[in-house]
# Entry
Amino acid sequence: MAQQVCMSAQLQCSFGVAPSVLTVLPKNRVLTENMPAANIMDFVPMVNIMPFGMCNCPSNPAVAAATASAMGVLTPMPCVPVVVKPWTPGAPTVLIANFPALDNTSTNMCTWGGVITIIYAGQKTVMIP
# Structure
């Protein structure tokens, strides 16, 4: 069974060097364990998805430029996510503010190629069937 994701969930990008925290604004008006519950639309960079430390992805323009300046030696740069689509797949049988609830099996893609996963749902008890 999947877990409902809420404020303070931990995220990881496959090209980032550090985990990040999901920020869920209380606009959905649904709480799980007294924390705002997330839906698939909580994907906005620098609002919901925070940076992942340093980025190692060569397709990230900042990493590519720094690597070129270092004569081809991979040079990590700050990992600011560039996410343009909602989380997938979400929990289609549970709606929060008319969108599928976000569960811990959902993923998202960064434009630069990283896969963003949920490594901790932010709470321990609410399960989604």
About this structure: The domain at 2-128 is CATH 2.60.200.60 (Tumour Suppressor Smad4). The chain has a mean pLDDT of 93. The two ends are 6 Å apart (CA to CA).
